[in-house]
Amino acid sequence: MILTVTLNSALDVTYRVPRLRPHASHRVSAVTERPGGKGINVARVLAGLGHPVTATGFAGGPAGALVRELLARSPGVVDALVPCADTTRRTVAVVDEASGDTTQFNEPGPLITPAEWSAFLERYEALLAGARAVALCGSLPPGVPVGAYAVLVRAARAAGAPVLLDTSGEALRRGVAARPEMIKPNGAELAELTGSREPLPATRDARRRGAHAVVTSLGPDGLLAATGQGSWRAAPPRALSGNPTGAGDSAVAGLLSALVEGLDWPERLVRAVALSAATVAAPTAGEFDPRTYEEVRGSVKVTAVQ
């Protein structure tokens, strides 16, 4: 199975409004609730691809109970979340149906106690015994040590499981030094890590900091990868309108599933770009539109770069 870790899980709430206007009241045309947080989104996409997947992290309070209830309805995802006393956060996405734009509100996460962190580490190490690969995703909730991802990367490497790390800031800086198999920053996260806003030099610089491979998200322009086998750009055939929330998580699922299947780097990037595009076309994060996925997958352009 593939193991995903979401230390700062969330209840994702999506509102759709005919038009979003500042300083105005709005009638919401539709509401959806989904189990969320980056790693849980990754888990749901992996399950949609047919991969056995286990999701761990923290869940607590009424929002956490609803996350677990909704996760139980996600076919193919095994719930291994660890209880915490404080309540799981909510994220609220407001989709403007007139423009297609999305406005996101993210609550702070729960306060994790030292005892809860220890309980998580015990669960994580037990789960590693059956993991073919690990995704470590998202922000750290209050109370979790800033070097947490470095600890989790080293434990996975000791168990022989390749790790994809998708986080930001100091957690990324410390985590990449533990030498994960891959990291997947976006442009802003990459610039914060390296100090450079030039995508290709910055991606290669990030790889020199410890990761075996770095795949940078270029938003609607696709992905840029620097690996031990070469460097590539992968671009979708066209920009898609829709909700971009979770598109990066779907790219992580594409990269990790392709790694487990033994695909080469260009094919990994094709899958990741196609899944990302298909998620923009889906109504909520953690889902992808199968028809768009198949359409885009056959048209992704992968180019070697020097």
TrEMBL record:
Organism ancestry: Bacteria, Bacillati, Actinomycetota, Actinomycetes, Kitasatosporales
Protein name, entry field: Sugar kinase
Swiss-Prot/TrEMBL GO biological process terms: carbohydrate catabolic process; small molecule metabolic process
Residue span, Carbohydrate kinase PfkB domain: 11-286
GO cellular component: cytosol
Keywords linked to the UniProt accession: ATP-binding, Kinase, Nucleotide-binding, Transferase
Entry's Gene Ontology molecular function annotations: ATP binding; phosphofructokinase activity
Stretches the record annotates as Disordered: 187-209
The keyword DNA repair appears for this protein: no
PANTHER family named in the record: 1-PHOSPHOFRUCTOKINASE, 1-PHOSPHOFRUCTOKINASE-RELATED
Stored SUPFAM superfamilies: Ribokinase-like
Family, similarity comment: Belongs to the carbohydrate kinase PfkB family.
Organism of origin: Streptomyces xanthophaeus
